[in-house]
Amino acid sequence: MIEGLLLLLITIVLSIVGAAVASSLQHKAWEVQNRRSIEDAQLVRAQELSDKIVHLADRRIYRARRLCWSLEGNSSISRDRALNDYRESVFEWNDSFGYIRANLLSLYNFDCVTNFEEEIHAEFQSIGSLLERALRGRCVPSPALQRRLDVLSSKSYKFTARLKGPIRERNLPHFEDLDAIEYENADRLSSVYLVKRLYGISTKPRRI
Which residue range(s) make up the domain with 171? Predict the structure, then answer.
């Protein structure tokens, strides 16, 4: 009788321990898979963002150059066509400005947003003002303006290179702050929870 009860007790204890180990491993595997899925989604967003910045910046810089060339004497480039193309690129840039800022903040950090605004966007605005002034005065933009476009092109590539570094390394700044969904009972692995799991009693998880 005593041996039978002891054997039953040992069986129950081993079952609880086994359930604890299995549940812990299952939960850890779920956490890894869930975190990986979140990271993959954010890496895709970050790649799309950096590609978009490169595309918009290259487009605006090239069309600004064409507008400068169209103002030179004996240019074969139509000034009206170059101006329309440039203004279209300005519209596309401004139309995407909010999207870029929001994603830089959510995927990277506030310093990244500030650098984008001060190093890239502000320089585009300054160059745009000089171009408008040259158009109103019907004069040829100075060589200094072309050099500023060269510098801005270099800055935009360096900025996007800084964005792509963490993508290659799978180490975006916000990865450390990811809040994986946790289940209260599964995390704590209480004896009540394990017994319920063992005997098929409902243990519907609750989000915390």
Answer: 13-198
Is 2 a domain residue? no
Q: Are 104 and 112 in contact (CB under 8 A)?
A: yes
Nearest-angstrom CA–CA distance, 1 and 64: 94
Query: How do residues 173-190 score in pLDDT, each as one tens digit?
Result: 876 655 443 434 444 444
Tokens of residue 140, six digits: 């040829």
Determine the Cα–Cα distance for residues 181 and 96; give it in Å rounded to an integer: 32
In this structure, is residue 204 part of a structural domain? no
- Could you read off the pLDDT of 67-110 as tens digits, one per residue? 999 988 788 889 999 999 999 999 999 999 999 999 999 999 99
Q: Is residue 3 part of a domain?
A: no
Predicted model pTM: 0.70
Closest CA to 34 of 166, 179, 208, 185: 179
Chain centroid to Cα 92, Å, comes to 20
- Asked whether residue 7 is assigned to any structural domain, the reply reads no
For 183, phi then psi, to 5°, come to -110, 125
Number of structural domains (the chain) is 1
